[in-house]
Amino acid sequence: MSKKIQLRGRVFLTFNLHAVSGLHIGGSDVGVEIGGVDKTVIRDPLTNRPYIPGSSLKGKVRSLLEKYEGLPQNQRIGQGFIHSCNDNGTYNECAVCQIFGVPGERNFGTPTRLVVRDVQMTAESVARLEESGRTDLPYTEIKTEVSIDRVTSAANPRQMERVPAGTIFGPVEMIYSIYDGHGCNPQRDVNQLARLVEGLVLLEDDYLGGLGSRGSGKVRLEQIEVRLRSKNGMLKPSESLGRFETLADLVAALPQLQEQIRSQLAQA
């Protein structure tokens, strides 16, 4: 039995990520030496600017889809759990595991469909924050929270570092691969592109990073573009299938986009 798998094409989804409220994606504790901050944000070591790791964005969208679909949390990752199919039968029916991947120790599975790049702040946001002169630390604010002891009424202040509301990161780049061959079906991959878009809708309704239940991490997707590079055009620039100002615009156009992708892949 042949186990050949062939790449049929790649869909490139790019957009800007607008921090509607302060954004906290945790970094190391070395920042405590600078400003006495309890929870610091992750920064690029070369520029000292906050950024969004692709793993944080990918993991959040996966987690939201797992809960949306009610999938069992059966795989320990660090201090928590994620869903991971344990056998080939369930994997063949699981869009989440096919899109986002399964642990390497599994003896089944096909290539992970989704790649998410790290994303930096836009040049405009960098300039705005540098020129404002109003941030507590470079490019960030300090949000002080106070917990109250229910018995003694003693106050326990703590400081959280956040990227200020209004900051834009981008372009975010998500690469969604479409495969054919052993265990893969290009038509199914195109259909399951809708699951990824569902995850982005869930993200806008939820939050990114930490401290979300206390106001941080609300984001909005803007200036979205969908591009396609088919198997026979790998040496050519990817072709734009559409540009959308908002995620709602992309959702409305998704059936038509999927049909365009199917048509172009059929010609490859």
Order of helices and strands: EHEHEEHHEEHEEEHEEH
Computed CA radius of gyration, to the nearest angstrom: 21 Å
Question: How much of the sequence is in beta strands?
Answer: 25-35%
Q: What share of residues is helical?
A: 25-40%
Low-confidence stretches: none
How many E strands? 11
Spatial gap, N to C terminus: 25 Å
Relevant terms:
268 residues; alpha+beta; two-stranded antiparallel ribbon
What does this structure look like?
A hairpin with a 6-residue loop joins strand 7 (141-148) and strand 8 (155-162). The protein is globular. A 5-stranded antiparallel beta sheet has the order 5-9-1-10-11. The longest helix is centred in the last third of the chain and has 21 residues, at 247-267. Helix 6 (186-205) runs antiparallel to helix 7. The protein has 268 residues and is an alpha+beta fold. It has 7 helices and 11 strands. The protein has helices at 32-35, 54-69, 88-91, 95-100, 123-132, 186-205, 247-267, and strands at residues 5-19, 51-52, 75-77, 80-82, 114-116, 119-120, 141-148, 155-162, 168-181, 219-230, 239-246. Helices cover 30% and strands 29% of the residues. It has one domain (5-54, 111-267).
Topology:
Layout (H helix, E strand, L loop, with lengths): L4 E15 L12 H4 L15 E2 L1 H16 L5 E3 L2 E3 L5 H4 L3 H6 L13 E3 L2 E2 L2 H10 L8 E8 L6 E8 L5 E14 L4 H20 L13 E12 L8 E8 H21 L1
Antiparallel strand pairs: 1-9, 1-10, 2-6, 3-4, 5-9, 7-8, 10-11
Helix pairs in contact: 2-6, 6-7
